Amino acid sequence: MARDVKRKYGGIGAGRRVSERRAKLLAAGLQAFGTKGFAGSSVKEICGLAGLTERYFYESFANKEDLLRCVYHGLVEDLVQSAEQILKSGGSREDPAMALVRLFFETLRDDPRIARVLYFEVLGVSPAIDAAYREGTRKMIQVVKETVATAFPGMDEQFLERSIITTGLAGAVNLILMRWVLEGFSPPLETMLDEAALLLEKVRRAGFLTRIIHDGFRD
Amino acid sequence: MARDVKRKYGGIGAGRRVSERRAKLLAAGLQAFGTKGFAGSSVKEICGLAGLTERYFYESFANKEDLLRCVYHGLVEDLVQSAEQILKSGGSREDPAMALVRLFFETLRDDPRIARVLYFEVLGVSPAIDAAYREGTRKMIQVVKETVATAFPGMDEQFLERSIITTGLAGAVNLILMRWVLEGFSPPLETMLDEAALLLEKVRRAGFLTRIIHDGFRD
DNA sequence: TGATTTTGACAAGAAGAAATGTCAAAATCA
DNA sequence: TGATTTTGACATTTCTTCTTGTCAAAATCA
């Protein structure tokens, strides 16, 4: 399979060819892990998807687990980057918090493989992967923190840093997304977004967070 | 190993002996999955822990995955039952919501194997396990719903049923617990409980949920 | 006691995968 | 063109595991 892969090693430098192979393997890893799961995917299979052979696998990755770690890391990195962009360029007419929510929902719905890797395949594989997950979660929580700080100006950042509120919020989004994935993306995106928007609006109108803070949280 | 296991098959009926073996295997499964993980545990190992041989494994379980499913199911069942008991017998002087929170935190801290199976090992193994997880999560969300209904009397149950609030709440607890587990149960239990109590108190004082409801959520 | 059931130890087949190694063909370079 | 590098196919080795099967010893029953 993949017999007609172009092989020009003169025009393209060696280093670049290696990284192109690496990219192919990453894409194949997402495909394999995201559809058949980590345990259900063999290195040979992944190489087949990438149109490469095992030799090139071990050129870029120590083992299958290492590939999973890199795939996961890339997904988190992409998501966080998109999120940061949304937060920084407040140009969008949409509420930044809602724009974030939309980003997550749309990303996962449009590529369920991402959802599977991000939420299901990365857990309980090995201590190294657990560490990567821990780091990924930390980044996501950071994004949530920045989002709250943006959506509720005047919020005490120190408070956000210390409290479990942001972790809780991230967890809420997390489980809602997980269930949505498991339910096959039903109800449809727009319904979910409407509900989220309504909830956010009510939270604002109730002055929930600001009340909690200014009501003297630590007295 | 386990050479001195008592073997009286006359005094104890056949069916009972089978279920005793089954129980031993379930305990061994929790031990294995909860310390070395699902992928890192072999059937032979589990049998060794149970003091039984492979023949008896397949007497009670179709395969390793089946054992994981049963272990997980048992853990969820126990937790839910403890929770229901706390909720029904409102006798405890403690706030039922906090009693629930305490139950979860204490259970996981006192037996981290439970935490590992419940939160990490059960994901991404197979469609059958995913289904079990889905059902387990559903039950947990149900408990959260009942807790909120108890803690905030006058709450519109229909609203709770329909909204994503309960899922979000369950997710919040979920991730907070996961991180706590991953951080090696630091900060200590009492700190976590204090923070949770403070948060709950503030939510009450802000009249958050009731405001959201009575403010006309669906207008 | 002698027969029978249950049990534990272990063999062994079947299967699959991880990771490394070999080698000739294809592509490229000089 | 001829030499060299890169590449793909595949063999191989070494494991590991699941799962079934065999068989004698121990416990029990009649």
Main attributes?
homodimer, 219 residues, mainly alpha, Arc Repressor Mutant, subunit A, Tetracycline Repressor, domain 2, 2 domains, 11 helices, 74% helix, 0% strand, disordered N terminus, DNA-binding
Structure overview:
Two copies of one chain form a homodimer. Chain A has 219 residues and is mostly helical. The first copy, chain A, has two domains: 1-61, Arc Repressor Mutant, subunit A; 64-214, Tetracycline Repressor, domain 2, CATH 1.10.357. Chain A contains eleven helices and no strands. In chain A, helix 5 (96-110) runs antiparallel to helix 10 and helix 7 (127-151) packs across helix 9. Chain A is elongated and about 60 Å long. Chain A binds a DNA duplex (30 and 30 nucleotides) through residues 2-3, 5, 7-11, 14, 17, 42-44, 52-58, 63-64.
Could you state the order of secondary-structure elements of chain A as H and E?
HHHHHHHHHHH
Radius of gyration of chain A: 21 Å
Distance between the termini of chain A: 68 Å
Give the structural class of chain A: mainly alpha
Instruction: Estimate the strand proportion of chain A.
Output: under 5%
CATH class of the largest domain in chain A: Mainly Alpha
Q: What's the assembly state of these chains?
A: homodimer
Shape of chain A: elongated
Mean pLDDT of chain A: 86
The description of the largest β-sheet of chain A is: none
CATH superfamily of the largest domain in chain A: Tetracycline Repressor, domain 2
Count of distinct strands of chain A: 0
Count of structural domains of chain A: 2
CATH architecture of the largest domain in chain A: Orthogonal Bundle
CATH topology of the largest domain in chain A: Tetracycline Repressor, domain 2
Helix fraction of chain A by DSSP (H/I, runs of at least 4): over 70%
Spans of at least 5 consecutive residues with low confidence of chain A? 1-6
